[in-house]
Amino acid sequence: MARGWGRKDDVDDPEDGGQQLLGAPTRASPYITPEGHARLKAEYEQLWGTRRPEVVRALTAAAAEGDRSENAEYHYRKKELREIDRRVRYLQRRIPELIVPDRRPADPSRVFFGARVELIDEQDRHREYRLVGPDETDAAEGRISIDSPLARALLNHAAGEVVEARLPGGVGEFEILAVRYP
Question: Among 55, 85, 101, 124, which residue carries the largest CB count within 10 Å?
């Protein structure tokens, strides 16, 4: 029997055959690029040092207006403060556990964390991705999580190799054209 969703001991639970339960959340990779780490720290400082004090002042002013049960401004500011506090708590837990790799991989011809990978798919569409941590993923910018199915399929492969990835839309085949590290 599993003892809790997403806990490490779920994976090695002898009662479920050592298999992780379907639908159980997995722990996000702790890796992050230096740029992503700086962005998260800046977000935390902005939320805690600037945005939260502004919202607290507005909430105090709204609360001073009297009857809170029909005060839309008061309810809006309370909700906004909860959202800010939720994000701040997440960042306070997440930032200390992040690992910023401080050197390039031993074999820079292979795909590892931080790599920029140029691919061509089965329909001859060129794509370029950078493998980043889950906290800095942005598909529009071409940054995919190291935990994504495509990134996991690409890991430890080199230019010229063809990899098969099990994606949400089905199995895809990709040829690696180039691997670069910034």
Answer: 55
The reply to whether 120 and 93 lie within a common domain is: no
Q: Are residues 176 and 123 in the same domain?
A: yes
The percent helix, strand, coil of the chain (3-state, each to 5) is 40, 20, 40
- Residue tagged 């909860």 (tokens): 82
Domain region containing 72:
34-97
Residues sharing a CB contact under 8 Å with residue 162, sequence separation 6 or more, in sequence order: 173, 174, 175, 176
Instruction: Give residue for tokens 């977000």.
Output: 43
Q: Give residue 65's pLDDT band: very low, low, confident or very high (50, 70, 90).
A: confident
74-121 pLDDT, tens digit per residue, is 999 999 999 999 999 999 999 999 999 988 888 999 999 999 999 999
DSSP state of 110: B
Q: Are residues 133 and 175 in the same domain?
A: yes
Q: Map 118-169 to HEC letters.
A: EEEECCCCEEEEEEECHHHCEHHHCEEECCCHHHHHHCCCECCCEEEEEECC
